[in-house]
Amino acid sequence: MMLTHERIQEKLNEKFGAGVLQWEESYDMLTVIAPKELNLKILQYLYEEEELSFRFLTDICAVHYPEQTGAELAVVYHLHNLVANVRLRLKVFTAVETPDVFTATSIFPGANWMERETYDFFGVNFVGHPKLKRILNVDEMDYFPLRKEFPLEDQTRIDKDDEMFGRGGSYN
Amino acid sequence: MSEHSVVHHIPLPEGSIQKQTTTMNLGPTHPATHGVFQNVLELDGETIVDAEQTVGYIHRAFEKLAERRPLYQVTPITDRLNYCSSPINNMGWHMTCEKLLGIQTPKRVDYLRVIIMELARIADHLICNSIVGVDTGAFTGFLYVMQYRELIYEIYEEVCGSRLTTNIGRIGGFERNFNDTAFQKLEKFLKEYPEVLQEFEKLFNRNRIFMDRTQGGGAISAERALAYSFTGPNLRAAGVDYDVRVAKPYCSYEDFEFDIPVGTTGDNYDRFMVRNGEMWQSLRIIEQAYRKVQDFKGAEAEVFHADVPEYYLPEKKDVYTKMEALIWHFKIIMGEIDIPKGEVYHAVEGANGELGYYLISDGGRTPYRLHFRRPCFIYYQAYPELVKGGMLSDAIVTMSSLNLIAGELDA
């Protein structure tokens, strides 16, 4: 049987309750948004359930939405069922003050560095990660550079007049 | 596993020549590492007991940079990921944009892109494989194939003007049509390269010294490779036939007939053989694509971009002489064009694995967030597992046969 998006929705809703998960579909990819406490349970269910078998972790990254109070950080998992050739995106949101999300390293050893990178740039604290320390940036860095509050360019510079290029004001 | 830091100076059993293991820094500027990689190795004689990688030496914050750049200005960033095959990165990015913007490219554009992408794959693989040769002590192959990388670069040059960091193409197609010189050079390449590749294979494939050096070293099982999210030739060498070109065809790859070479043991030798096999398949694809391109007649044979004036940069000579073209050029470059909201994940088969672009647009002039799924970064974490228990000299071969590119690793 083909593993359709409807079937994935049905299976997950059945397991975790229909009201718990939110669904989106954009550009051929099904996205499930789950409470962050459930991320590991969902990943495990997706991995172990024979029909779903999402056993390949393509990627983990995070996104910062500063205006969503209480759910500023999104951790995004891209999963792939290589047999049925279906991709699935899983998102969990967490508050930036308590960015604790369970680690996926127990299911996917490859999640190790992906989570370290996510921690490095967004400060997502992956609970249970075997070695959560910075990976691409220097160890001494005391902020998480991909968060939106850090503008790209040094704001104290006065030798560049960005207004001339339509970049003044709130744009950074 | 790479979770724990390396334990230094482990006592060795009674009767050993040394009392304890030796700690050695391999890199970051060691000539045998082909890039800025550092490994802290714990050695018992010449045998590796433990290893730990340090990455990030050439981290340039591409994902942050991309958040301030309109779509076209992101293309030069992608050049600098895997710089051995930049056209694949460029076109992968343009295809991601096209997916977001809903642009359909004409078939001829797809075929021309396929030609360039497969040339880039050959350029990448021939470097990787010949470097494996160099690291095992065979320099000849490296010099021998190098002139054909030069020829590939000349073809790039005819198409886009640059060689290494190509910045090739536009959203919707190419900046100009392929000229006759480009096609002549392509024909020359298709005619001469098979012979060279054959000779290259003769030097290595059944060479006893080479086989002894590479077989069994740096092996990984299919199961572990999948668990570590390996993709590309490294995964296929372990026996899994996953290739994005087939699993989710982009750029009309479904129109071509080609095989996916797979290995069995996932060791250095299999990786080498899979890359050689892929070069033959790439040649097959290029030949088919070239024939298909020649089949276009009349006005169709002149098509080299989609008709999307909102996103496709106007021709340079128009920009210099016509006001409208100048305005459009300026608007596109400065990011004054509206791009739709949306989230796109687009993957292409890069030369060393699945290269993914996760683009989130909030409708602003720049990506709200752009994440590169860089195959190197993901499979390099398995390196200690691959080299542990082996000899130091095999670790060098393993590193080059993984096709690690520092630019992509560190983004």
Give an account of the 3D structure.
The complex is a heterodimer of chains A (172) and B (411). Chain A is α/β, with parallel strands linked by helices and 172 residues long. Chain A is 20% helix and 26% strand. Chain A has a domain at 23-137: 2-Layer Sandwich (Beta Polymerase, domain 2), CATH 3.30.460.80. In chain A, the strands form 2 sheets. Chain A has a 5-stranded mixed sheet. In chain A, strands 6-7 form a two-stranded parallel sheet. Chain A is elongated, with a radius of gyration of 19 Å. Chain A starts with a helix and ends in a 45-residue tail after the last strand. Chain B has 411 residues and is mainly alpha-helical. A 3-stranded antiparallel sheet of chain B has the order 1-2-3. In chain B, strands 4-5-6 form a 3-stranded antiparallel sheet. Chain B starts with 21 loop residues before the first strand and ends with a helix. The chains are: A alpha/beta (172), B mainly alpha (411). Chain A binds chain B through residues 26-27, 29, 31, 55-59, 61, 63-64, 76, 78, 82, 85, 87, 89, 108-110, 112-114, 117, 121, 130-131, 135-138, 145-146, 152-153, 165-166, 172, and chain B through 1-5, 55-56, 59, 61, 63-65, 67-68, 99-100, 224, 226-230, 240, 242, 247-248, 334, 336, 342-345, 347, 354, 356, 358, 360, 368-369, 371, 373, 377-378, 380-382, 410-411.
